Amino acid sequence: MPKKNLIANVIVLIIIILVIVWVYNFQIKNYNGLQAQKENEIKKNTVIESISGLEKTMLAYKKLLFKKEINSLVTIINNIAAEDKIKIQSMQPLPEENKQYYTQLSINLAVNVASYHALGNFVKDLEKSPDIFNIDVISVVSAKSGDSEAINASTAGELNATLKVSTYIYKE
Fold it and tell me: What are the domain boundaries of the chain?
């Protein structure tokens, strides 16, 4: 009888061990599935945070690109030119260029500057402006005339530059 009880106990013990191993393997698979799901959710959260940051950036740019008028742009350029002691000889607004998501406003400027350095400061200050400006074309020539008698001390070293300056308006 003790042998029968021993065999029965061993069989029951083996069955219990098999059940425990089966439950353990099931829980490991479940745990691994949850780990994969957790990593997936972390990746999704990272993407969502990234999208949120991009949306905030886009809203900030929309504010910069919203409802400008050519008159306000002329005023901004005039103020920057005055700060940099740039003489604006002419300013000619160009027709608006309508694009899919924005409208491009452009102005042709003819300016007189004391030096390349002064022109560089003007361009730098346009770039630093809270408004977005793009210099599409720039051409620089000496302010001196071809006639040697026309050259005098007031034009020595001066430059004439033409610039096409553009900015953008976001379309809703």
Answer: 1-64, 70-170
Query: The whole model's pTM is what?
Result: 0.57
Say what percent of the chain tops pLDDT 90: 45
Q: For the chain, percent helix, then strand, then coil, each to nearest 5? A: 55, 25, 20
Q: Give the DSSP per-residue string, 151-171.
A: --TTTTT-EEEEEEEEEEEE-
Q: Which one, of 76, 75, 81, 74, lies nearest residue 108 by Cα?
A: 74
Say if residues 84 and 122 touch (Cβ distance below 8 Å). yes
- Do 97 and 104 form a contact (C-beta atoms < 8 A)? yes
What is the Cα–Cα distance from 23 to 25, expressed in whole angstroms?
6
Superfamily of domain 70-170: Ribosomal protein S6/Translation elongation factor EF1B (3.30.70.60)
Question: Is the pLDDT at 69 greater than 90, yes or no?
Answer: no
